[in-house]
Amino acid sequence: MQRERSARPRVTVQQTVIAAVAPDEHDDVLRIAWVRASTFGLRLVVCAVVPGDGEVAAARELVERRVSALIPRGAELEIDIRVGDRAEELLECARTRHTVLLVMGPASHREGILARFFSPSLPTALLRAAEFPILVTRYSPPTGRIVAAVELGEAMKPVLEAAADELRRAGGHLHVVHCVAPLPAPGTMELPVVTAPASDLIEAARGELTRGVAAMGLAAADVKVEVGPAGQTILQVARDLSADLIVVGTHGRSGPARLLLGSIAEEVLRATPCNVMVVRAGADA
């Protein structure tokens, strides 16, 4: 008689939210990370990185004290204190867990074009390498208005999915924005003259955007097609709406391509008036 094979127990990998904390910024980071982890039933990992082994004990004591003050007793979480380069260690912490979101504070300094290439800020370094969404916190009064800045086509889906998750979590109203760049005026090679795209191009973009938003089940969203440089336009829309969150995609370029082409997500991060969530767009999602 053939012995029946016993079914193997299914192993479930618990998804995590990483709170990347530092002594001068982690209260808001902890609160926001905990809200998202608890709302979606995810495990919270609080990660801090220090320069040397001699600072580990003091860092752990400080983090434990803040966790105890800000997060309910008995909450399921883990504190991970690491030594080394902050960007590298945060990425390693996230990669060893099934991370669905990393929450961190804003850039601590402004970056010139060469600094962005040779020595980028922590948020910039992480968003170039991370394969998961990153939420960069910057306090703004809560308004319930979310700006999702999207490209057309497949690249809009991960951005809209992240925005839809935020709507389910906290409610509010979604504004979906696509930016169309001005076109060089013909016959003006010597002068930096630009002209608005033809109205039929703008209407075609609006039609594709509206269909994409409806296909994601977000028909109630406000849809806008704006003409102008993408980064500046997204920031202005967020300011005009008093938005408390911008969701924007990135393709994760690095090296010379990033130096020459720049990044809309990085431009938004440097000057944002509110929280920004950066997600992988298109084939990188």
Question: Which short descriptors sum up this protein?
Answer:
2 domains, alpha/beta, 285 residues, 12 strands, 24% strand, Rossmann fold, 39% helix
Structure commentary:
The protein is about 40% helix and about 25% strand. It is of the alpha/beta class and about 280 residues long. It folds into two domains: about 15-105, Rossmann fold, CATH 3.40.50.620; about 145-285, Rossmann fold (3-Layer(aba) Sandwich). The strands form two sheets. Strands 3-2-1-4-5-12-11-6-7-10 form a ten-stranded mixed beta sheet, with helices on both faces. Helix 2 (about 55-70) links the parallel strand 2 (about 45-50) and strand 3.
Which secondary structure elements does this structure contain, and how are they paired or packed?
Layout: E1 15-21, H1 26-39, E2 43-50, H2 56-70, E3 77-83, H3 86-95, E4 98-104, H4 113-118, H5 122-129, E5 134-136, E6 145-149, H6 156-170, E7 173-180, E8 183-184, E9 194-195, H7 199-215, E10 222-227, H8 230-241, E11 245-250, H9 256-261, H10 264-271, E12 275-280
Parallel strand pairs: 1-2, 1-4, 2-3, 4-5, 6-7, 6-11, 7-10, 11-12
Antiparallel strand pairs: 5-12, 8-9
